[in-house]
Amino acid sequence: MSMPFYVSPEQIIKDKADYARKGIARGRSVIVEEYDQGIVFVAENPSRALHKISEIYDRIAFAAVGKYNEFENLRVAGVRLADMRGYSYDRRDVSGRSLANAYAQTLGTIFTETPKPYEVEIVVAEVGQTSEDDQLYRLTFDGSVADEHGYVAMGGSAEAITLALSTEWREGMTLVEALRLAVDLLGKHGGEGERQLGPGELEVALLERSRPRRTFSRISRARLAELLG
């Protein structure tokens, strides 16, 4: 009778983590920044149909990198959870923090209990009545949650972009300043050499503080060309 191979739990977890990181590293980066009137999302994404950035609820949005089918499942689950909670209780009871916690539990369960982890990294962002109330939560493939301030970068070039943002981003930036900074960094650190990205290669959306109730809006490519000058 042959003996089964033994693999330690530590090795299994390490292998899963390495597998997920490699999948995420192949994805094109996404940058999320706070600006003076809300939060801007900028993704390198030439597709008009397969969105990396989406609305979840009135003041909450979602951005992701990794395998599209996996983060789309998470997005749909988040929309359903937010709708159910808002309908059952009150719209004000739906918060970015509660959605981030729900996503963390889901990702953590998938990572520990299934053979293949999700190859995704996501951000849940909520725009507040003032800039001090804005919330950014970054969630990784194993369910870890980080409460970020000011900006977040995800994807294959996240480390280099985050390092650049730490010196170039500042509080109170205008939309044009924040947008141009994000596009410049995505072009410099895209992993294919320095490039100049045009409106046709970008997906951009906003959570605008001043909009009534539903604060999410997408920026069209024509409008994006105007903003980028």
UniProtKB/TrEMBL annotation:
Q: Which UniProt keywords apply?
A: Cytoplasm, Proteasome
User: Which InterPro entries does this one have?
Assistant: Ntn_hydrolases_N, Proteasome_alpha-type, Proteasome_asu_bac, Proteasome_sua/b
Which biological process annotations from GO are given for this protein?
proteolysis involved in protein catabolic process
Entry keyword annotation includes Cytoplasm:
yes
The residue ranges crossing the membrane are none
Entry GO MF terms? threonine-type endopeptidase activity
Which Gene3D superfamilies does the entry link to?
Answer: Glutamine Phosphoribosylpyrophosphate, subunit 1, domain 1
User: Among the entry's GO cellular component annotations, what is one?
Assistant: proteasome core complex, alpha-subunit complex
Q: What is this protein called?
A: Unannotated protein
Taxonomic lineage is: unclassified sequences, metagenomes, ecological metagenomes
